[in-house]
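User: Run a structure prediction on this.
Assistant: Running it now.
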Amino acid sequence: MENTAAASELKVIVFQLMEKEYAIPVSQVRSIEKVEYITRVPKAAPYVKGVINLRGVVTPVIDLRSRFSLPKEEHTEDTRIIIAGINDMEVGLVVDAANDVLDIHSDGIESQPEVVGSVEAGYISGVAKIEKRLLVLLNLEEVLN
């Protein structure tokens, strides 16, 4: 007898960078915020935009476009900071837009393709096909390393 309920679905937050859709598990997302003032931090890695004061908690902010070596773009009305947590660490991820919350069936998730022509290959935990959409599932631990 298989335990299909536990492994059958993964609930994810879908967000955009350029024209691609990415996803991270809802269990790793604390909140989604509009972009606010980000205080720069001297000598931080280029993809670290700085820190924000989020309800009294100082939270580092990473620009995922910069982290993935994508072209810079000005923030728009749709730009969001996804507050994600992993291993007692919270971080804000700047994304172009946060679109949906979706349930992905585990049998619809494939491991990353052997040939990925982009820098973010190491940050990918899999690819999910939902109807005509292709979602890139991020491995947050690798992104934050």
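The first strand starts at residue 9 and ends at 17.
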